[in-house]
Every structure is written in C-alpha cells, then in structure tokens.
Please model this.
Amino acid sequence: MPRIQSSTDLRNNYNDISTFCNESNEPVFITKNGRGDLAVMSIALYDQLIHKNELYRLLQEAEADFKAGREMTFEESFQKLRKGLENGTI
Model:
C-alpha cells in the first residue's frame, strides 16, 4: 500500500519520511492541497529506477534491431566486441 503524506508532514516530519524511504526502499507520495504533487524516494531507489529504465530502453533498441533484420550471430557479435576492445572504442 503506498504511503501518502501531506506537504505539511514533509516539512514537519522530514527525518521520519527520510528514514522510511531509506529503510523500506519505497517512495512516499506527497500531496498539496489534497492532490498528488510529488514522489519522494531514496537515492538508492532513484538509481535503481534509472538503471531499470536504461535496461528497458536497450531492450527496446535490441528488439527494434531484430525486427529490422539487424542481427548477428554470437561469433560475429563477439568479434565486433573484441575489435572494439582492441581499438579502444569500447
């Protein structure tokens, strides 16, 4: 169940909210005048979400390449990777 608190709670109970976010690894949703306004989360959760988003982007890119016929065998891929490492481009 999401934790929802008011902007007043954030101002008055910052340390409690910070502790909750860091210990639970969940966001707290902050309301302003009774409406959703912000999501507050730990840096660790933020980093996790950013990395997950990057992984999804790369998977979508790979899927688009596959659908467009741009694919390689494992051997071709490995050779390309090795060349990049030898040339310093990777």
User: Anything to note?
Assistant: The longest strand covers residues 35-40.
